[in-house]
Design brief:
Layout (H helix, E strand, L loop, with lengths): L6 H5 L7 H22 L9 H11 L5 H18 L9
Helix pairs in contact: 2-3, 2-4
Amino acid sequence: MSKPFDMALFLGGVLNGSTATQQRHIRQARIMQAAIQQRWQRDNPWGWHFKHVRWFLVYRLKDRSEATRYYYRLTAQLISKRLGRSWLCLDI
């Protein structure tokens, strides 16, 4: 039996700012993780591709406000930074 992926530990090295901001990024990353897990059975960011993150940002957040989509893009950029990948074209 494997342990569940700890998103807080994963993002810990790249998080900065206030405690509230850090908690928001962790909460949003967990929401992204759950949605991508449900759709593609990819349980951690190491297995994600750009298409997974793009799907979440475009289709799962389509009915959300522009501010909400902006904050999720920031979280996606933190995940990208932590993975060492260049998803910087997240201006979707």
